[in-house]
């Protein structure tokens, strides 16, 4: 029954979106980090999604989603003059992150909506399978 | 009188299978709504059902030799097509989430309707057999 593979598909969607939510959470948590050099500064992370083929029943038409990589943003980190900071370098600069908080919030909303969509698919499929078992198993 | 249970059930077993396949494709579309380069897919339900039920549409296989196997009415999975994108995004993704959600809900309803009819026919047959 090809309805069963929907659990895999929607489950992979849930997993991928929760990885995305996790990266958003760590980006937001580290939004105000400071570092004493440009290399050590925190850079925003973003997962890369790709389709994943499940070789289940149904002739390979079931495709889920998987996270292939988590990439760091290439945007430049901010440099702030703050000689009083214990982490400041010799010139008195600290390096903050390149996390764009507004962008992260938008990303978070998008990820949570996608997560909800997959949950809806899961619960509908569960109902369908349940009524299939109940009605045809009488 | 030769009686076939397949005939008594009509086109509904094939329809149920097609609806399950379509639910799978639509779930794939919804799961891949954020995947770059993913092309949304679907099946042409009416054409697929006509091909599987042998009503109109495609012609059924013919036996030219009596030793050939009986061609079964229920073929394999229906051919998978691509949805026409309404507004493709820059990353090459063509999933229209609203359309896919609506189609998934409609498909679930159709599945349940088919299931109800099918189980009604089955219980009718069972009544005819048991006599109660």
UniProtKB/TrEMBL annotation, chain A:
Alphabetic keyword roster: Bacterial flagellum, Cell projection, Cilium, Flagellum
Subcellular location per the Swiss-Prot or TrEMBL entry: Bacterial flagellum basal body
UniProt-listed InterPro entries: Flag_bb_rod_N, Flg_bb/hook_C_dom, FlgC
GO CC terms of this entry: bacterial-type flagellum basal body, rod
Ranges of residues in domain Flagellar basal-body/hook protein C-terminal: 90-134
Domain Flagellar basal body rod protein N-terminal per the UniProt entry, residue ranges: 7-32
GO biological process entries: bacterial-type flagellum-dependent swarming motility
Signal peptide: none
Chief localisation class: other
Subunit structure: The basal body constitutes a major portion of the flagellar organelle and consists of four rings (L,P,S, and M) mounted on a central rod. The rod consists of about 26 subunits of FlgG in the distal portion, and FlgB, FlgC and FlgF are thought to build up the proximal portion of the rod with about 6 subunits each.
Membership in a protein family: Belongs to the flagella basal body rod proteins family.
PANTHER family linked: FLAGELLAR BASAL-BODY ROD PROTEIN FLGC, FLAGELLAR PROTEIN
Protein name per UniProt: Flagellar basal-body rod protein FlgC
Organism expressing this protein natively: Acidihalobacter prosperus
Highest classification ranks of the organism: Bacteria, Pseudomonadati, Pseudomonadota, Gammaproteobacteria, Chromatiales
């Amino acid at each position: 029954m090809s309805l069963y593979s929907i659990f895999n598909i929607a489950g992979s969607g849930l997993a991928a979106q929760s990885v995305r939510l996790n990266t958003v959470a760590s980006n937001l948590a580290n939004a105000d980090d400071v570092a004493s050099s440009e290399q050590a500064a925190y850079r925003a992370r973003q997962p890369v999604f790709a389709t994943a083929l499940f070789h289940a029943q149904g002739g390979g038409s079931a495709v889920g989603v998987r996270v292939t990589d988590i990439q760091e943003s290439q945007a430049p980190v901010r440099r702030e003059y703050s000689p009083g900071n214990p982490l400041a370098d010799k010139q008195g600069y600290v390096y903050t992150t390149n996390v764009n908080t507004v962008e992260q919030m938008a990303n978070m909303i998008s990820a949570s909506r996608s997560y909800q969509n997959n949950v809806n698919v899961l619960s509908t499929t569960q109902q369908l399978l349940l009524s299939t078992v109940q009605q045809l198993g009488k | 009188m030769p009686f076939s249970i397949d005939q008594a059930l009509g086109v509904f077993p094939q329809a149920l299978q097609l609806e399950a396949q379509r639910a799978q494709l639509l779930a794939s579309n919804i799961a891949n709504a954020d995947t770059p380069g993913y092309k949304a897919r679907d099946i042409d339900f009416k054409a697929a059902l006509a091909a599987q039920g042998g009503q109109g549409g495609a012609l059924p296989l013919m036996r030219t030799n009596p030793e050939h196997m009986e061609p079964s009415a229920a073929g394999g999975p229906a051919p998978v097509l691509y949805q026409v994108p309404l507004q493709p995004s820059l990353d090459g993704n063509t999933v229209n989430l609203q359309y896919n959600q609506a189609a998934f809900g409609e498909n679930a309803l159709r599945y349940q309707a088919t299931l109800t009819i099918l189980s009604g026919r089955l219980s009718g047959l069972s009544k005819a057999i048991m006599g109660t």
